[in-house]
Amino acid sequence: MQKKYELYRGKVKTLYSTNDPDLLVIEFRDAVSALDGKRIEYFKRKGLINNKLNYFIMSMLEKSGISTHVQSLYSHNEVVVKNLDMIPLECVIRNRSAGSLVQRLGVVEGRVLDPPIFEIFLKNDSKHDPLVNESHCQTLNLVDMNHLVCMRGLSFKINDFLYRLFDSLDLILVDFKLEFGLFDGKVVLGDEFSPDSARLWDRDTLNKMDKDIYRCGLPGLIDAYEDLADRLGVILD
Ligand code: UDP
Fold first, then answer.
1. For position 125, what pLDDT does the model report?
2. Distance from the alpha carbon of residue 175 to the mean position of ligand 1, in angstroms
């Protein structure tokens, strides 16, 4: 399999075609973004770290029976994935209150959410990815409702698996975002799982070990991502 042409350059990742129409290559660049891409900065090694973390987590999910798009590592900061027909929604699971939930509802940060909350956001940068509900999805035909049922079920299944995994490493999985797509008509997990798209707190200190470090203008983003890789046993070099 050979990487061919750049198809799409996102804020921190680039997508390439390959000589196999069913496969793509995702490059994780050394960039971090916030505020819908209004802030973008460069951090050496970040692409490598997120690529390896994402590959590790996706492989663990695959072993636990969840279909993901990840196929194999292509280079230190690139991965081969299945070419999914992406569903333009973001699924968020929240085990503790943080981020936009705190801003929207005034809930105190860190409150345990039992049962966890499932939210859907429409992928639309110009509208700042608005929150939508199942009724919007159905009436506005944003997604096939059978696929949405699958996405919801898979999101909770992934949460059960990852919450326990991170708990065993003394980390709290506060919240995370997932994106799904279709391959041969089946709902498959796409995009990434990384500390860019999840909130992880150290259980003892409640220190942030995710992109909130950057969002809050704190130092130590790469140190925290490397600490995370170390706890998971992910070899970076
Ligand atoms: N998230 C993401 N991409 C987005 C929006 C959110 O990966 O475009 C992740 C975010 O990192 C967090 C979770 O989804 O882990 C919930 O994010 P939230 O709705 O609280 O928004 P935020 O305050 O992070 O913008």
1. 87
2. 8
Given the CA of residue 102, which atom of ligand 1 is nearest to it? 20
The pLDDT tens digits for 109-121 are 999 999 999 999 9
220 lines ligand 1 (CB under 6 A): no
Q: Which CATH superfamily is domain 3-82 in?
A: Phosphorylase Kinase; domain 1 (3.30.200.20)
Fold assignment, 85-218: D-amino Acid Aminotransferase; Chain A, domain 1 (3.30.470)
DSSP three-state, residue 213: helix
Mean pLDDT of the chain: 97
Where are the domains positioned within the chain?
3-82, 85-218
- Ligand 1 centroid–CA 20 distance in Å is 32
SS3 state at 8: strand
pTM: 0.98
Region 96-102 average pLDDT: 98
Q: How confident is the model at residue 8 (pLDDT cuts 50, 70, 90)?
A: very high
**Cα–Cα distance list, 85 to 20, 22, 64, 180, 199 (Å):** 15, 10, 23, 9, 27
**Cα–Cα distance measured from residue 93 to residue 154, given in angstroms and rounded to the nearest whole number:** 11
Q: How far is the CA of 213 from the centre of ligand 1 (A)?
A: 13
